[in-house]
Amino acid sequence: MVCVTDQLPYTDELLVQTTAPPERVWTSLITDLPRMSAAGRTLARALGCEPASGTPAFTGSPGDTIPGFRVVDAAAGERLMLEGRHRFSRYRLEFLVDDRHLRARTHAAFPGWHGRLYRTAVIGSGAHRLITRSWLHRIARAA
Q1: What are the sequence ranges of the domains in the chain?
Q2: Of 16, 90, 91, 110, which residue is 20 to 30 A from 7 by alpha carbon distance?
Q3: Is the pLDDT of residue 29 over 80?
Q4: pTM (2 decimals)?
């Protein structure tokens, strides 16, 4: 599938090891990601995120949403690709599940001087890595 934001620059990739079978990691991802993202609903609205709210019954299917992200591609048990945008950035977050790891790969663009300031505040400060790594650990533990 070709995504609108295929040309986004690579930002980072984080991973955690897991001993759970990929099917359990996938179930944890689909179940826990909307719960963790719900806390960001206020931030998503403040940033002008598209989308700003989540699909009531999130299944990880293309078109489903969580605050700040829309599922654009999914292969159950293997890959969940999310995209979103707001005033300062366009981004893609891809979760990859295999026999030993849960990965989160991020691509993002930060246009204009406001975007550069936002990138410094979020990426440069380490906040993105901290939040993403926290999500990965919570999902892996729940699996």
Answers
A1: 16-142
A2: 16
A3: yes
A4: 0.91
